[in-house]
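Weekly structure sync - notes
Attendees: PM, LS, DV (DV joined late)
Agenda: review two folding runs queued last week.

Item 1: First target. Sequence and structure tokens pasted below for the record.
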Amino acid sequence: MKIVQLITHMHEIGGAQVHVRDISRCLSEEGHSVSIIYGGGKEAIGDLKVDGVNYFFSKYLIRQIHVWKDLLAFIEVRRMLKDIQPDLVAIHSSKAGIIGRLASWSVRIPCVFTAHGWAFTEGVDPKKQRLYRTIEKGVGKLSKKVITVCDQDRNLALSHNVLPANKIMTIHNGVLDSRYNSINSITNDEVKILMVARFDQPKQQLQLLHALMHIKDLNWHMIFVGDGRLKQSSVQYVQENDLADKVTFLGTNSNVSELLNEADIFVLTSAWEGLPLSILEAMSHGLPIIASNVGGVKEAVRDNENGFLINGNLTESIKLLVENELLRVKMGTRSREIYEASFTFDNMYEKTVNLYRNLIKSEDML
């Protein structure tokens, strides 16, 4: 197969970018021809580059809506697709999802769009919800198939009549297996809490810091991995509330797997999500999860089973796990079991590649 992966940007690590990188690597290793077209105004970072994959930079493809640049991005991406002549275009992220489907349709190349969380999901500004629902109803007609990474997103699209049921299929996100170390001893060490997310909407790191202030005297240490435009407000909050000895900001870090191995609890306080890879990675490392009850999170985090869903109980949930190591071990073990049963990369990859093949085959029969 000759596949183009199209995504809005590759200069910042996120769930969609990791998804594209890992699928592209496996496709290339199996002998398929893979190209990645990306924009975002910056070159792809090293952690997201794969040997054997061709990278094409679109200087006009940006995240923000900009009518003139969006038109130029359409022309540019269309030209690239005509030059590459792939069998299929696999498209990721909202802006690329719009530009890419229009460009693919215009040169008669079949495309599949993966919605890594809808731009019209709950928590997004209502005006933006209405705008993106309208756009998705229009460009959805140009997709041969749309993948949602969780059942919640599939149901959301169906409930708003964004797409017909026969065009949408759920392929749950999956992550590569970790170097899992099960916890088999009880210690009195400081409890390490980890959150891996960019400091931007909708991640809400400040909400987590507010909750931790209520249990300041307990034996925990909070580690934030990620950068972003809202980071300074969290740094300032830590300084103003004398939390500097209990909170560490690591910035962007490529050793997330090692940090997960050393952590005791994983937390994600998002206002909206699809099905975050960060949660699945933490589950693969056998960690109990505390996460916002948004998007498809509840499909991976079973409340009171392998962690807690946040419903106004963030402080209480953290306190319970910090003080009870046996519960952490029990919930962490259950996280690993759920990961192995439903969220492995191999399972996701097999379903995705089968869909690619079926779409190409159906196009050849026309």
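Item 2: Second target, run right after the first with the same settings.
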Amino acid sequence: MGPDGPNRPRRRRKGYGAWGSAGQGPWSRPSHGSVRFRSSSLTERLLIALVLAVVVGITVGLVLPRLSPQVSRMTGGYTATGDAAQTLGSLPVVDRPRVHRHYNRDSFGFKQTDDDGDGCNIREDVLARDLKNVRYTTQGGCKVASGTLQDPYTGRTIPFTRGVRTSSAVQIDHVVALENAWRSGAADWDQARRYRLGNDPYNLLAVDGPSNQEKGSASADYWLPPRAEYHCDYVARQIGVKAKYGLSVTGREKDAMLAVLHSCPGQPVPSG
């Protein structure tokens, strides 16, 4: 080999050694200061590695149960206690319901009944129940003209004013969506029973309009309210409605509900 081959002696840089200080080459013994520097650097690296390990462990513990149902079961993510969890356990699980008729929202007769005989439909009754500072269109009437909603789904304070362009800011949500109820057993009911569910105040909440639109007919495994603090109450009410009317849940829906209830031990089913 020539002088540029692999056996060519390594040149020592003038003035700087392997440690970056004058007079220290790769074969020279580091000064005490350099030893302290290496020790400090090693400690810092160990601390960084420890912090990263903790962060990764926490991330894995939080994310994996959501990504893998099997991991969640192994880690207890689908265990829950309390009335809501026990009631959920009593619901039938039907993953592939046999529905022989197409869903028809009108079959539930929403706003077609007046069970309390006040001359107003259930939308007006729910607005009057859930809004504050309620004003009516006529004195002694029951049609709501305005009010303020403390929205459970978003936590926002929403002003309501009746009008073609303003009424949709506050909408009435079926907590158990009617299409979900249809697939969960209501398709086989008679009209009277479907009308009761469609106009039951227990299954109705005044909520933020855009959130209601976003939810659509989704069950708990596909949609939960934006406000995480309301998830437990929301799921517990869905369970209460399904128990009241003998509706089923799917396996995924049940797992999603249990995952929510896992974070709120002892969660009750709402009364009403």
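Discussion on item 2: The two ends are 94 Å apart (CA to CA).
Action: LS to circulate a short write-up before next sync.
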